[in-house]
Amino acid sequence: MIAISILIYVLGVRPVVEATKKAGEEIVLKKKVVSKYESYLHNRKTVEESLDRTVKQYAEIQERLLPGETPQLGAANLQEIVKRLSEKNGIGIRSFRILEPKETDSYRKVSVQIEFNPTNSMLSLGQFIHDIENHGKELMITEMELLVTNFRMPNNIQGSLVISGLMKGTKTKEKGKKG
Question: pTM higher than 0.70, yes or no?
């Protein structure tokens, strides 16, 4: 009789108790997984809004960069912008020189050096500089050299400017290809 009870316990009761204990542990683990996914679902709207904001910011930044796949195309676009702004403000440009592009972490900086003819209007020169600095593209004047030809009557100014613009860099494209 004792042997039958031990046999019933070993073959019947103990496996049921162990299966129940194991099922309880699995239920606890699955509840944790479900609660984790529920938190993701609750935060989904916040994550999507953040993603939308990031995509919009990226698009705005891309709009401010000079177009073109190569530094030569970017410099040509920069040269065209400078030419239009100089014509708008009555600044005569004597020469354009495209400088060597410089790579940064995620951008390429292209520059043109211009030499402008003597101008007698400080207002038009100031407006020209203002238009460059506040253009829709990311432009900046990185060097400026002004020369006054007559110090007694300083109304004729000539000089040179180095105007730079940013365009997409090659390093970000390489990172995208590797990853």
Answer: no
